[in-house]
Design brief:
Helix content is 39%, strand content 24%. The protein has seven helices and seven strands; from the N terminus they run ααααββααβββββα. The chain has helices spanning 10-17, 21-30, 38-47, 54-67, 93-100, 103-110, 182-204; strands spanning 75-76, 80-89, 123-125, 131-138, 142-147, 156-165, 169-179. A seven-stranded antiparallel β-sheet has the order 1-2-7-6-5-4-3. A hairpin with an 8-residue loop joins strand 5 and strand 6 (156-165). The chain is globular, with a radius of gyration of 17 Å. The termini are far apart.
Length: 207
């Protein structure tokens, strides 16, 4: 599916939501929106707390999907099968980021133990034989790494963005692209949902 127009003018979406289409693309990309289903995209737009009307939440989700040229569920023209799991956590951003970059947190979202130095260009190999490279590590903002299990022909790319929402809430995303199949996509969805659950349990228990 080729990239399409969003179906609503830039002026209209800006007036109704406070953001232009470019701003919505930038925000939803940052939060892993490309890997989300329509229902998940609507929830993500709603969770930003600035679009109260359900019709506009739906319209932003549909327009974003068109702009991103989404194909079947979880599949796009450029990045193949992908998945995104997003969670709003009731915990300060600094605490959430500390856990995401801790050994416990990395093992939760990456899926295996091993040494991982969060510096761009650093290569790693985990105990299960998977390997990859750190591409982006912006303190307090996002992580982007490649990940390749031994049986895969090519690596996927995992992104973990974290955005503060006020003093006591943080929006965290787990986004993975270049997955080999729909079946793998569903398995990885379960993996990242469990990682999100572990994140919530870890950071809120310290409140």
């Amino acid at each position: 599916m080729a990239k399409e127009e969003p179906g609503i003018s830039d002026a209209a979406v800006t007036e109704a939501t406070g953001r232009s289409w470019k701003e919505w693309e930038r925000l939803l990309d940052h939060l892993g929106g490309e890997g989300l289903s329509h229902k998940e995209l609507v929830a993500l737009v709603r969770d930003q707390g600035e679009v109260a009307r359900g019709w506009w939440q739906q319209s932003v989700a549909v327009g974003y999907a068109r702009l991103r040229g989404k194909r079947a569920a979880g599949q796009t023209a450029k990045t193949g099968f992908q998945i995104g799991v997003q969670r709003t956590v009731t915990a300060p951003h600094a605490r959430v980021w500390e856990w995401l970059t801790s050994r416990e947190g990395i093992e939760a979202w990456l899926g295996a133990s091993g040494e991982l130095v969060l510096e761009p260009g650093e290569r790693y190999r985990l105990d299960d034989g998977s390997k990859g490279e750190v591409r982006v590590a912006r303190e307090g903002d996002r992580l982007r790494i490649t990940w390749k299990p031994p049986e895969w022909d090519r690596p996927s790319t995992i992104q973990v963005p974290a955005e503060p929402k006020g003093n006591d809430r943080t929006v965290v995303g787990f986004h993975e692209e270049h997955l080999p199949s729909q079946e793998v996509r569903e398995a990885r969805r379960g993996h990242f949902k469990e990682a999100a659950n572990r994140l919530v349990a870890a950071v809120t228990s310290r409140a």
